[in-house]
Amino acid sequence: MRDEFLNEDDKIQEKLKQKTWNEIRTNDSWAIFKIMSEFVNGYESMARIGPCVSIFGSARTKPDNKYYLLAEKIAYKISKAGYGVITGGGPGIMEAGNKGAHNGGGTSVGLNIELPFEQHYNPYIDKDKNLNFDYFFVRKVMFVKYSQGFVVMPGGFGTLDELFEAVTLIQTKKIGKFPIILVGREFWSGLIDWIKTVMIEREHNANPEDMNLIKIVDTEDEVVEVLDNFYKKYNLSPNF
Q1: Which of 74, 213, 234, 236 could bond to 51 as cystine, CB 3.0-4.6 Å?
Q2: Structural domain contains residue 35
Q3: pLDDT of residue 125
């Protein structure tokens, strides 16, 4: 029975249900082929697009929200500065990012994933650059491999997931030390203060130098300045 037709209790029961070895082997084998196909399609499509800057943020942000309008301005300026823009392809901040890139005449990429409540692709993605994924982890690899900068707007758990994944991969030297730019001091200051005072200073669970990976800004000009200052020294290229 397909998951969307089950209530929460039924879904849990279905996941806990004992399966035969043949069922497990068959399901997992076909899943591997599906995962491989998403990787192959993503790599082939993104390799033609080339490296870009990713914009993360909430799918729930409305078009009249100040952060939506700011994300649109940021993406516009990024595209005018010669960078492509990648978003998660959906509404909210993602739509604002694609819209700004589209209006700026730049590359506008959407890495879309189907979600039960808020996700549907927005109309500002270049028609040949709208990729669809079933697996979050495959989609996240595409963000990381082809993003040479991460602009993080206010968002929810998904945005935090993307932010901390980027920080972790840079911290552990799995990818290059690319700019991570948090937009909106008002939104991010509480989280950053907790990281500094509790996680680092009190509990010693991270290196104080790791905070140097993150820049906090408030305007579109500051975003472009951080990117330009970084790329005066480096050429854009895939991460691995």
Answers
A1: 236
A2: yes
A3: 97
Domain that includes residue 55, residue range = 18-231
Whether 1 is in a domain gets the answer: no
* CATH number of residue 92's parent domain: 3.40.50.450
Domain count, the chain: 1
For residue 3, tell me if it sits in a domain.
Answer: no
Asked whether residue 84 is assigned to any structural domain, the reply reads yes
Task: Give the chain as a DSSP string.
Answer: --GGGS-HHHHHHHHHS---HHHHHHHHHHHHHHHHHHHHHHHHHHHHH--EEEEE--TT--TTSHHHHHHHHHHHHHHHTT-EEEE-SSSTHHHHHHHHHHHTTS-EEEEEE--SSS----TTS-GGGEEEES-HHHHHHHHHHHEEEEEE-S--HHHHHHHHHHHHHHHTTSS----EEEE-HHHHHHHHHHIIIIIIIIT--S-GGGGGGEEEESSHHHHHHHHHHHHTS-------
- pLDDT digit string, tens, across residues 57-75: 999 999 999 999 999 999 9
pLDDT of 84 over the 70 cut: yes
